[in-house]
Amino acid sequence: MELEENKANPIHWIMYLGILVAVISPLIPQFVWPFAKSWFFPDVLPSVWGVRAWEYIGNPNNQVLEAVFNSLIIAVIVTVISILLGVPAGRALGMYRFRGKGLIELLILAPSIIPSLAVTMGIHVIFIRLGLADTMFGVILVHLIPTIPYMTISMSGVFANYDPDFEEQAKSLGASTFKTFFLITLPAVFPGIVTGAMFAFLISWEQYLLTVLIGGGRVLTLPLLLFSFASSRDNTLTSALSIIFLLPAILILFFTSKFLSGKSSGMGGFGNI
Amino acid sequence: MTKRTTVTLLLLPTLLVLFLLFFGGLVMGLMQSLGFMPMIGLNDFNVDAYRSLFGDQEFLSSLGLTMWISVSSTLLTVVFSIITALAFRRTFPGKRLMNFLYQFPITIPHIVITIGTMLLFTQSGLISRVAFQLGIISDQSKFPVLVFDNLGLGIIYVYLWKQIPFVGVIVLSILQSLGNDFEELARSLGASKWQAFRHVLLPTIIPGILPASIICFSFTFGSYEVPFLLGKPYPTVISVLAMRLYQDVDLNARPQAMATAVFMAVFISILVVFYKKLLNKVSGRA
Questions:
Q1: Chain A interface includes B205 (CB < 8 A)
Q2: Which of A32-41, A170-179, B76-85 has the lowest mean pLDDT?
Q3: What is the predicted ipTM?
Q4: pTM recorded for the entire structure
Q5: Residue A139 touches chain B, beta carbons under 8 Å
Q6: Do A217 and A96 lie in a common domain?
């Protein structure tokens, strides 16, 4: 017996339409508000258009550019550290079987289960004593709490599908450890590293709570600014900042959509939870 | 190098950093929740903070609201991710574009969609305006309260928006690797469409999305930004309550803030163990 034809019927079309509306609709007002000068109920479009938000953002006295710069610096450094630590750790978890592995996996998974709020509140006292509170370095350190486990877990998924025989062959043909790493290992796992790194970047980029707890408002990042505008209900400025905040996510989406559509290597390592 | 040395060297930096930051933070939080804070002259261990926490009506209603939001958004995420992923198995024109749109929310930051939800669903939001123009409502106060409401509907919407694609992509890849053979076999042996889904597809999908659903649940349980921006000040979720206590100018509220945070960590760990057991049982029976 054949399954019924594999074509979408009207019920499916309603579902696709539903997905389309549900995904796009919350973003629509956000792309109109930045160009609104006055837009009151019940107007569906602004009555007066303007570019006040963009003038505000472009003005160097208003800290927006500083916040963007801080966010970028922090996220880049956090990503680099996460790669340097997470790739080796992911290799160990993905390629080797050893005693106590289950326990170590549990330890690395714990930060994705236990709220980072709880951990960061606890560590704040130590950071104050060490002079790390209210500094960018302190903020970078706490951002590592969610990013390193993410990087490790996604790399363990990548290394689990990696065939180490090529390394053995290169070595038996006389390649040094150094050469083997750069010519064999790195090219094989590079796409995995790039995907993992992009998401690690995003995790740091969108971090609000950890930054505000450890940075104490002194380390100004884009989410902090966005949050305070959103709380003050300035829709025009909030939406404009939100679009800037969105840019890296959109760029990353274009890069990674092909990686995500197939087997999601990023989630592979979560299998042991 | 022996295997043991290699593994140790590869893992050491990560474990060291996590141990210091993560477990250090947990232990420090636990000590402070027990009233041990030498910096402000508190040197005795006691359980006063926990006692006052469990006697506090606001804490209990926060816990209730947090559980409602996390449980309902996780359940709805699982249901909708399966339904939408199944719909994506069909072929239709524009499938590539739809596929891209479906995955689109995965990388979008929570704050962005939180702001979008605010601009769309408040009583002066875009939907309310359209409803007024169409004559469905006569005044903006007639528009139903969908954000800053008692049930946290706006908050749940944001979580669903973010999480359905996250879990849906995993369901899609499970369906892809499973292929049609098993389902066709079940149907040829006389199973109905529903029976084939219930007894062939579902038992494969559920264990596959178990880890992702745990991540979703834990995230919604501990998340701060979304409920802060879209929730009522009272009752609020447990993370917002913990932050409010933490930022209190009165340092005596500190142990209580820490007790709330430690409670969250312990509670979610117990829930995850329980949830995993329960779901394993359910999928085993299926």
A1: no
A2: A170-179
A3: 0.90
A4: 0.91
A5: no
A6: yes
